[in-house]
Write a structure and sequence with these properties.
The complex is a heterodimer of chains A (120) and B (108). With 120 residues, chain A is mainly β. Chain A has no helices and eleven strands. In chain A, the strands form two sheets. In chain A, strands 2, 4, 5, 6, 9, 10 and 11 form a seven-stranded mixed β-sheet that branches. Chain B is globular. Classes of the chains: A mainly beta (120), B mainly beta (108).
Amino acid sequence: QVQLVQSGAEVKKPGASVKVSCKASGYTFTTYGISWVRQAPGQGLEWMGWISAYNGNTNYAQKLQGRVTMTSDTSTSTAYMELRSLRSDDTAVYYCARDQSLIAAAAGYWGQGTLVTVSS
Amino acid sequence: EIVMTQSPATLSVSPGERATLSCRASQSVSSNLAWYQQKPGQAPRLLIYGASTRATGIPARFSGSGSGTEFTLTINSLQSEDFAVYYCQQYNNWPPYTFGQGTKLEIK
């Protein structure tokens, strides 16, 4: 069965960076893209960007351009999301999610979420 | 950027009744529209993609309709486990693949 297992919770100071991992299993990793979505406390869902696990192509939300980098490691079937210059409003649960199918980029399978807290 | 607007923000419905949730896009997204359910403390779960295709394991009481800019999620015969927050998302134009702000479905 498809599983996405994310790394554990992080506490960071303003200005620092965080790197969240998302290890995939149960399918051929390079076949599907991975999206990253975040959710601030009590708020809705925010799409952050997408990476092709096949060739590493990325597409980021404009508001995060320059601060976010998404990568993937096909040898370990793991996707990564790094966010730099952290601010207090980056405090959120960060989710990775796999594309539903080759033609539908809806997020069909989700990781359990990683809480990132930014606080001085 | 495409703006997705969901209505109502909160919907109160009795168990066993039907719930109808709406999602409007600021420009056409064709049928590239998904619906998600999220319960407290859990990751979202995909219910519908392609505007009307149920994801694997989703009960038949969930149905989606619409295309272009107007979409509807209908939940028939509401069960206790259906009370949650529902989000729509367009994946036609990026970046970003925008989400609606959510509709909270609560027990009446």
